[in-house]
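A.,

Following up on our hallway conversation. Structure tokens first:
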């Protein structure tokens, strides 16, 4: 009987240690918001989207409605991996917590827009500008091909 007790105790202790290890790993995988913000800011496209969010959503942080500009900024921000991390990061101060809570009023409209198969040209442009490569291609297009829509011929480029 004593031997069975020892084996079951060892098994139970092993399971508890495993649970603690899993909990700590899951807890440590959540990024701090300050770190997520820096990670986003240093990436060209995400940094641009973050700037648009900070300026476009400032009124939301003081009011009760989500403007179209703020919605577009959030869509662009969450279209990047770094921006998604900002949405799930762990706040470390009251301002961060308040900002996340205030922007919650935009969640449903932003989620609906992100789930649509087709998006408007304006939203597509915001999303494209959040990606450095797409932003470069769009700038090239605007410089060399946009005149086609005004009846001019496309340049050789």
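Then the amino acids I'd put at each of the 157 positions:
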């Amino acid at each position: 009987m004593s031997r069975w007790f020892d084996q079951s105790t060892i098994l139970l202790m092993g399971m508890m240690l495993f649970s603690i290890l899993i909990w700590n790993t899951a807890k440590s995988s959540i990024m701090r918001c300050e770190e997520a913000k820096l990670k986003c800011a240093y990436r060209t496209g995400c940094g641009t989207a973050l700037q648009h969010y900070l300026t476009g959503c400032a009124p939301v942080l003081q009011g009760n409605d989500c403007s179209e500009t703020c919605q577009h900024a959030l869509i662009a921000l969450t279209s990047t991996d770094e921006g998604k991390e900002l949405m799930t990061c762990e706040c470390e101060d009251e301002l961060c917590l308040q900002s996340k809570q205030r922007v919650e009023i935009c969640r449903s409209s932003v989620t609906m827009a992100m789930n649509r198969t087709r998006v408007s040209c304006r939203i597509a442009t915001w999303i494209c500008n959040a990606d450095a490569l797409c932003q470069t291609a769009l700038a090239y297009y605007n410089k060399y091909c946009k005149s086609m829509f005004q009846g001019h011929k496309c340049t050789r480029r």
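The CA atoms of residues 77 and 83 lie 5 Å apart. Curious whether your intuition agrees with the design.

B.
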